[in-house]
From TrEMBL, chain A:
Domain ABC transmembrane type-1: from-to ranges: 117-332
UniProt-listed GO biological process terms: transmembrane transport
Tree of life domain: Bacteria
Name of the protein this chain belongs to: Peptide ABC transporter permease
SUPFAM superfamilies in the record: MetI-like
Automatic annotation (TrEMBL), chain B:
Protein name: Peptide ABC transporter substrate-binding protein
Native source organism of the sequence: Sphaerisporangium melleum
SUPFAM superfamilies, per the entry: Periplasmic binding protein-like II
Pfam short name (any one): SBP_bac_5
InterPro entries assigned to the protein according to its UniProt record, in alphabetical order: SBP_5, SBP_5_dom
PANTHER family according to UniProt: OLIGOPEPTIDE ABC TRANSPORTER, PERIPLASMIC OLIGOPEPTIDE-BINDING PROTEIN, PERIPLASMIC BINDING COMPONENT OF ABC TRANSPORTER
Gene3D superfamilies for the chain: Dipeptide-binding Protein, Domain 3, Periplasmic binding protein-like II
Length: 345, 592
């Protein structure tokens, strides 16, 4: 039955009010996190120019050359009192100006973030979705067959992979597929010999270079999804509607869908939050495979004491997580009627 | 599941299809794959050599007037680059540079003296040794004259430096028709005004230094190179350079393309080396186990040569008991440098013969027979005990204590990211513990933090890079420069007390009537014979006073792969530390 216009209006207003509340809270959280990260970043000890100079010396550059290469960097350091820097930073932020990098002198932080973000999306989004699909599907089997060998096998595989750190899986993948059985490239995002664009060679090279990061991320995340889904399925299996469905003699396929649809609800929230974390990058994976995403950008910016870039990377991660939180909350009200109607469904 | 299987199959198909495909096949010269040791690639950086992170590659598409040889003692030895030849007057008062008559930019325009003049003007905006607006600075250029289209003269100011030629020949040359617009009209008049004194000179200096960011951020739409290659494409993982058909010695250049791979840590270079992907790679610290894997990859080989850097253990002499030379000597007698080197840097280091402040190879050339007269500080616990007693230290219960009986703990600081230093520090502290000295290693999270804490005087003892030749001034400036209180501002040398202006070494201003900082500063200006005398004096003072204990001298360890190319510079070659692009310019690299 389609609700009448006068019935629909209060619901729309309620959603708008809910969304408005989320946005206001989100903005306050962004301001708080931005302020805290600003203070922390500005108080990290270390002189970026001196650090760069000594690094060049360590690489064998003569002191004169190193001085030439770093003298101009002083012009990119923030000046003024901490308060002046803070107010200037906030004013610029309102115009979406995140400042200029010192590690890539003169380049806008926004440019660096945009460049890194596109490389993070492929392995992290690809890895998250692949692990979610695999983990959730196999998690249902693990839950249903939890007393059998298949269930045991899936549970053990989930526990094992869940317990192994990302970087260990990454190093193993690297050793297997680039040294023992060298069929994949050891690093980089794409072979520079291919002309960028929608051509087969370039796209194939993209896939080839992303395979190990995606697989590593997927394997590292898979265990969590399997175990969470198995646990959720075990809970759902005890519900009355499953018993009713079995008594009605529904086919195994239909029963599987009933179980999966209901058990997956809590995992959607985790998935939305995982997608928010996507913009934090996958530091270890990006580092191991030399994949130029946001995680690597953050690590390098800390090492170089690139204040503007550090601030920009933290901001992107913060905004992404807050947006993901809001999206998860709103999404849950859509996919689970019990939340929408206060548990009266 | 079916969809998933289909996606996986497509991905596998695409990956398989990619294997062996080449977008634009290189010619018979092939693609030469390497690493740029000086910087990591940032695809967002402009194609501009004045930008420290710029998307240009020295020796390939970024060209200097000439290329420095890896000389043990003479910083003014060069291979020709864009400059075919050069002459200097005695004392390096004037340097006349003759450009290659056939040098051209990759857009076909000739390389002229005006290009060099503009490049020098742009270098002034960045500051630096020869091109500084600081009046009175040693070795500053005073005049730049275009003699003709292929000849340029650079005149040194009154306060002369013996490395002026080196600094002039190191000038990176960019095309005037691309970069010339960055210099405002009247720039050269402003530069002349900036060399004076008073408010007008200050305004002129500010005007020139105000151009710094404009020059650094300038982004030409495409690469215009006078080198053997020109940038074709760059992404965050690599840069691709193709041959420049207008290069003056194009016949010597064998590879059709050069691929410069990016890295964010040494381990990525190791991965590339283990997989045999690199035709050459610059000096990289490598653990012994990884070195074994690298050497076992088909075609991989190592070239070794002189590297003017040494690792040392430096003291903060403002902290007790390190203000006492007997304590420093005692520690020197207790450290087995050969053992430390074997553990910390077996492939890229040799144990220091003794502490002179100079790399061992270079010390032989500088000091000759005098080297044998210096104290070698061979391991000798008995002498160490005598030195400690002379310092008033007391031994109780098998452990050495401070003269007042309080505990003495040697805290040896190193940055956590320098694996060879960490290993060396652990070996040293273990040896000291064996001799009744309570010692341990403390690490700083990263190098930038380490340097900050070091400069703030927070450490008693820390690791320090030294012996930065071939310039004798650069060698001793690491021991008797700003880290030890001596600063050179506008040509005037001054000494700050320990704890001020970055003086963390805290050594005395004068030792037995000798002012080592003043002597070091004189090295910049001295004749070759005077330099030899001063170096002898400073090496002796350093050997006796031990502001540092020299632990191991680095060995330049380069990696090559002989599967695709040959003609590599041999061990000990003067070209070994130059980029492979320069080896190609010198006609070394051939196709296998």
């Amino acid at each position: 039955m389609t609700p009448l216009p006068n019935q629909r209006a209060p619901k729309t207003r309620a959603v708008a009010r809910r969304l408005g509340g989320h946005v206001v809270r989100g903005l306050v959280m962004i301001w708080v996190v931005t302020t805290i990260s600003f203070v922390i970043i500005r108080n990290i000890p270390g002189n970026p120019v001196l650090g760069q100079y000594e690094k060049l010396i360590e690489k064998g550059m003569s002191p004169d050359e190193a001085q030439r290469a770093t003298a101009a960097l002083y012009g990119f350091l923030p000046t003024g009192t901490l308060w002046e820097q803070y107010t200037g930073y906030l004013k610029a932020l309102l115009h979406l100006d995140l400042g200029q990098s010192i590690s890539t002198p003169g380049t806008e932080v926004v440019t660096l973030l945009a460049s890194a973000a596109k490389w993070t999306v492929l392995p992290v989004l690809g890895g998250t979705l692949l692990s979610f699909l695999l983990g959730v599907t196999l998690g249902v089997y693990a839950g249903i067959k939890r007393s059998g060998k298949l269930g045991d096998l899936l549970s053990i595989s989930g526990s094992l992979l869940h317990g192994v750190p990302q970087y260990v899986i990454g190093l193993l993948m690297l050793a297997i597929f680039t040294t023992l059985w060298p069929i994949l490239p050891p690093g980089g995002p794409v072979d520079v010999e291919y002309v960028p664009g929608l051509n087969a060679g370039y796209l194939a090279s993209l896939v080839q270079h992303a395979t190990l990061p995606v697989l590593t991320y997927a394997l590292a995340s898979y265990g969590g999804w399997v175990l969470a889904m198995k646990s959720s399925v075990a809970t759902v299996l005890g519900d009355d509607f499953i018993l009713a469905a079995e008594l009605r003699g529904l086919t195994r396929g239909v029963l599987f869908r009933y179980i999966a649809r209901n058990a997956i609800l809590p995992l959607f929230t985790i998935l939305a939050l995982s997608l928010g974390m996507l913009f934090g990058g996958a530091i270890f994976i990006e580092r191991i495979f030399n994949y130029p995403g946001l995680g690597l950008l953050l690590v390098n910016s800390i090492g170089a004491r690139d204040y503007a870039l550090m601030g920009g990377t933290f901001l992107v991660t913060t905004v992404a997580i807050i947006v993901a939180n809001i999206a998860a909350d709103l999404l849950y009200t859509v996919i689970d009627p019990r939340v929408r109607t206060g548990g009266a469904a | 599941m079916k969809r998933l299987a289909a996606i996986a199959a497509l991905a596998a198909l695409a990956a398989t299809a990619a294997c062996g495909q080449v977008a634009a096949p290189a010619g018979p010269g092939g693609v030469y794959t390497t690493i740029d040791g000086a910087k990591q690639i940032d695809a967002t950086a402009p194609i501009n050599p004045f930008n420290p992170q710029g998307s240009t590659f020295v020796g390939y598409d970024a060209m200097s007037l000439a290329w420095p040889k890896n000389s043990l003692t003479d910083p003014n030895q060069f291979y020709p680059g864009i400059a075919q030849s050069w002459t200097t007057t005695p004392g390096q008062g004037e340097v006349v540079v003759h450009l290659r008559p056939d040098a051209r930019w990759s857009d076909g325009k000739p390389v002229t003296s005006q290009d060099v003049r503009t490049s020098i003007g742009l270098a002034y905006t960045q500051g630096g040794s020869a091109y500084t607006v600081n009046a009175g600075a040693a070795g500053a250029a005073a005049d730049i004259q275009v003699v003709d289209a292929k000849t340029i003269k650079v005149v040194q100011g009154a306060n002369r430096s013996n490395t002026f030629l080196r600094n002039v020949l190191s000038t990176v040359v960019v095309p005037d028709h691309v970069y010339g617009k960055l210099l405002p009209a009247g720039f050269w008049a402003t530069l002349t005004a900036a060399r004076g004194t008073g408010p007008a000179a200050d305004r002129a200096k500010a005007e020139i230094t105000g151009l710094t960011q404009k020059v650094i951020t300038f982004a030409p739409p495409q690469d215009v190179s006078a080198g053997p290659f020109v940038l074709e494409r760059i992404n965050p993982g690599a840069a691709l350079l193709r041959r420049n058909p207008y290069f003056y010695d194009a016949a010597k250049i064998v590879p059709d393309k050069v691929k410069v791979l990016n890295y964010t840590g040494n381990e990525q270079i190791w991965n590339y080396l283990v997989s045999g992907k690199l035709d050459s790679a610059p000096f990289t610290a490598v653990p012994a186990a990884v070195m074994g894997r690298i050497k076992s990859a088909p075609g991989n080989a190592v070239r070794r040569g002189y590297s003017p850097v040494a690792a040392s253990m430096a003291f903060n002499q403002a902290h007790k008991p390190y203000d006492n030379v007997h304590v420093r000597r005692a520690l020197a007698y207790l450290i087995d440098r050969a053992q430390v080197t074997k553990i910390a840097s077996p492939e890229a280091g040799t144990p220091s013969l003794t502490t002179t402040g100079i790399h061992g190879d270079s010390a032989k050339a500088w000091l000759g027979e005098r080297l044998a007269t210096l104290n070698p500080y061979k391991v000798d616990p008995a002498k160490a005990d005598l030195e400690l007693k002379a310092a008033g230290m007391v031994k109780r219960g098998g452990t050495w204590r401070m003269p007042d009986g309080k505990p003495w703990k040697v805290e040896l600081h190193v940055p956590a990211s320098f694996s060879d230093w960490v290993a060396a520090a652990k070996s040293i502290t273990s040896q000291l513990n064996d001799h009744g000295i309570d010692a341990n290693v403390t690490t700083s999270a990263d190098y930038v933090l380490y340097l900050d804490e070091l400069a703030a005087g927070k450490f008693d003892v820390g690791f320090w890079l030294m012996a930065l030749g071939p310039s004798s001034y650069n060698i001793f400036q690491r021991l008797y420069g700003s880290a030890n209180g001596w600063s050179l501002l506008a040509g005037r040398l001054s000494h700050s007390p320990p704890g001020k202006d970055g003086n963390w070494m805290g050594g005395p201003e004068k030792i037995d009537g000798i002012d080592p900082g003043e002597l070091t500063n004189r090295l910049n200006l001295a004749t070759p014979q005077e330099q030899k005398n001063i170096v002898g004096t400073l090496a002796t003072v350093t050997n006796q006073q031990l502001p540092v204990i020299q632990i191991y001298d680095y060995v330049n360890t380069q990696f090559i792969n002989t599967s695709r190319y040959t003609g590599w510079p041999p061990d000990g070659s003067e070209a070994l530390r130059l980029p492979a692009g320069v080896w190609m310019q010198l006609g070394m690299i051939k196709k296998r």
